[in-house]
Design brief:
Distance between the termini: 88 Å
Number of helices: 4
Low-confidence stretches: 45-66
CATH architecture of the largest domain: 2-Layer Sandwich
Oligomer: single chain
CATH topology of the largest domain: TolA/TonB C-terminal domain
Largest sheet: 3 strands, antiparallel
Structural class: alpha+beta
Number of strands: 10
Number of domains: 2
Radius of gyration: 34 Å
Strand order of the largest sheet: 1-2-3
């Protein structure tokens, strides 16, 4: 049977979890005290709720800070005006936009890039864009490409495409869409 002061008993020795946690806490407090003392001995600046709080030097390094000066912080540029009524872009609507001439019209207008043709590059380029209220394409970007000039060609043909605009509750609305453009060599 172990005695309460037995050095082999981990509950009462240097390996005690309570003692280890206590040492960590004491060391942390010591490090924070040194950091705080260093901060007080040199000028510093803190911004709080749009006001700058500046430390006042007292002449003695060990002396506590007696008071703070507050001054309004002025921004170089004014904050942006609030957005009044930004147009909502839909992802799913009652009547989705329809490509005039169908996907075949886009595929027929593709000019296979010479570099891709010579390198034997084939695959699908996924283009994401917004069809606005008038059926025009805007903000087109390649989400997944295959390179060799195919990405740029896919963007070109999608930007030239015309759509019948999507409708929500009978009203034309902008809709975000994606199209896969397939590049296949004829062999």
């Amino acid at each position: 049977m172990k005695q309460p002061n037995d050095p082999k008993d981990d509950r009462y020795g240097w390996y005690s979890p309570r003692l280890q946690i206590g040492l960590i806490v004491v060391a942390s407090i010591f490090v924070l005290a040194i950091a705080f003392k260093q901060m007080l001995s040199s000028p510093f600046q803190i911004t709080l709720f749009g006001h700058e709080i500046l430390k006042v030097e007292t002449g003695e390094q060990e002396a506590p800070v007696h008071h703070f000066h507050f001054r309004e912080r002025h921004h170089a540029t004014p904050p942006p005006p609030p957005r009044m009524h930004e147009e909502e872009v839909f992802v799913v609507v009652e009547q989705m936009p329809m490509l005039i001439g169908g996907l075949q019209s886009i595929l027929q207008s593709i000019e296979y890039p010479t570099i891709a043709e010579k390198a034997g590059i084939e695959g699908r380029v996924f283009v994401q864009f917004i069809v606005d209220k008038d059926g025009n394409v805007r903000d087109a970007e390649v989400k997944r490409g295959i390179g060799g000039g195919c990405d740029e060609e896919a963007l070109r043909v999608v930007r030239e495409a015309q759509f019948i605009p999507g409708k929500q509750r009978g009203k034309a609305v902008p809709v975000k869409m994606s199209l896969p453009i397939t590049f296949k060599l004829r062999g």
